[in-house]
Amino acid sequence: MTEQPYPDPKFVEKEKKRLLEEKAIIEEELANLRAAMLEEVDVEPDEGDAGIFEREKTATLISVLEHKLSNIQAALRAIEKGVYGICERCGKPIEKERLEVKPDATLCLQCQKEVEAMNRRGRPGAARW
Ligand SMILES: [Zn+2]
Questions:
Q1: The model's pTM
Q2: Which helix (H) or strand (E) holds 48?
Q3: How far does the centroid of ligand 1 lie from the alpha carbon of residue 10, in Å?
Q4: Does the residue 18 lie in any domain?
Q5: From the CA of 88, how far away is ligand 1's center (Å)?
C-alpha cells in the first residue's frame, strides 16, 4: 500500500462544516416541500392543471434535493472513514479546487466528465437524476 494522497485535515474540517451547514438547509427545505406536497393532495378541479404542474415542480425539486442530500451524506461518511477527497471511481485524489466548489464531490473531474458523457448517451437506467 502506498501512502494515501489525502487532503490536509484543516481543509477536511472546513469542508465538513460546510457540508453540515448545507445538509441542515436542505433537510429544512425538504421538510417544507414535503409538507407542501401533503397539503396539496386535494387539488380543486378548477385549478387542476396548475395544481398538477405545481406538484410536479415540487416533486422534481424534492428529488433533486434528495439526490444532493445523499451526496452530502456520502461525503460526510467519507470524512468519517478518512477517504474524503478520494475519487470513488479511480481512487485518485479529487482536485482541491473542485472540492471547494462542490464539497460533496465523490468523483474527480475526469471521472465526472466520463460519467456525464455516459449518461448523455442514454444508458438505460443510468440517468435517473
Ligand atoms: Zn476519478
A1: 0.72
A2: helix 48-81
A3: 23
A4: yes
A5: 7
